[in-house]
TrEMBL record:
Keyword annotations of the record: Lipid biosynthesis, Lipid metabolism, Membrane, Phospholipid biosynthesis, Phospholipid metabolism, Transferase, Transmembrane, Transmembrane helix
GO CC annotations, alphabetized: endomembrane system; membrane
Family that this chain belongs to: Belongs to the CDP-alcohol phosphatidyltransferase class-I family.
Taxonomic superkingdom: Bacteria
Keyword Membrane listed: yes
InterPro entries from the UniProt entry: CDP-alcohol_PTase-I (IPR050324), CDP-diaglyc--ser_O-PTrfase (IPR004533), CDP-OH_P_trans (IPR000462), CDP-OH_PTrfase_TM_dom (IPR043130), CDP_ALCOHOL_P_TRANSF_CS (IPR048254)
PROSITE patterns: CDP_ALCOHOL_P_TRANSF
Protein name stated in the entry: CDP-diacylglycerol--serine O-phosphatidyltransferase
Protein source organism: Paenibacillus apis
GO molecular function, one term: CDP-diacylglycerol-serine O-phosphatidyltransferase activity
NCBIfam families from the UniProt entry: pssA
Compartmental location: Endomembrane system
């Protein structure tokens, strides 16, 4: 019974950090808020691996994981971005819609993930932890990037989450059972480093996250260009009936 609860403790830790990120953001401690989202990503990446290593995966854990992800990688990053970059803007409907759109698309992405089998080795649509990580860390560049570009980035990330673009799935990489004993120490070390250097770590992690998100966008553009090229080469092809 205790063994079966271990993966859920990681998931609840993810949820706790998401809530903590929002409280820190409301308190004006934005760098720490962003790093809490990043550490939550670490726990989110571990809960499934721990469950598979202990052979205790469950439907309950899957649903709990999705609910936690909506908070930690949907609501929390959107709130951080709003408080840092959008709060000082004229409070028009556009600001509210863009802020709310992100967690809404994240929820749709998770719901689709739970009911569709997908493609082995790939995610369909940008995973919400990656999207949330980009938004949380991107918000720290608000002094260097205009609010308009930040809003466009949030809209683009929202689209990528609900798109049909394929992203590599690294979650299936297993965790050896012998390594489980070191997992709490790794998490603790990561938290300590993150708390000591919150802004530096957040901005450093921003780079691989945005490259991962951009990978899908690049693939989508290439797909559209290939389709356009096929139509130009054979304009009647799209009208030919299938046999």
């Amino acid at each position: 019974m205790i063994t079966k609860s271990i993966p859920n403790l990681f998931t609840l830790g993810n949820l706790f950090l998401g809530m903590l990120a929002m409280m820190l953001a409301l308190d004006g401690r934005y760098s720490l808020a962003a790093i809490m989202v990043i550490v939550a990503m670490l726990l989110d990446g571990l809960d499934g691996r721990v469950a598979r290593a202990l052979n205790c995966s469950s439907e309950f854990g899957k649903q709990l994981d999705s609910l936690s992800d909506v908070i930690s990688f949907g609501v929390a990053p959107a709130l951080i971005m709003y408080l840092i970059s959008f709060q000082s803007l004229p409070q028009t409907g556009l600001v509210w819609v863009v802020t709310a759109l992100f967690p809404m698309c994240g929820a749709l992405r998770l719901a689709r993930f739970n009911v569709h089998k997908g493609i082995p080795g790939y995610f369909i649509g940008l995973p919400i932890p990656a999207a949330g990580g980009v938004v949380a860390t991107l918000s720290l560049f608000s002094k260097d990037i205009s609010a308009l570009y930040l809003m466009i980035s949030m809209i683009l990330l929202s689209y990528l989450m609900v798109s049909s673009v394929k992203y590599p799935n690294f979650k299936k990489v297993g965790l050896p059972k012998k390594a489980l004993i070191f997992t709490p120490f790794v998490v603790l070390l990561a938290v300590m480093i993150a708390v000591i250097f919150p802004e530096q770590i957040s901005k450093l992690i921003f780079v691989p996250l945005v490259l991962y998100a951009g990978y899908g966008l690049r693939q989508n553009v290439r797909k559209l260009l290939r389709r356009k090229r096929r139509v130009e080469e054979d304009p009647e092809r799209i009208y030919k009936p299938k046999r």
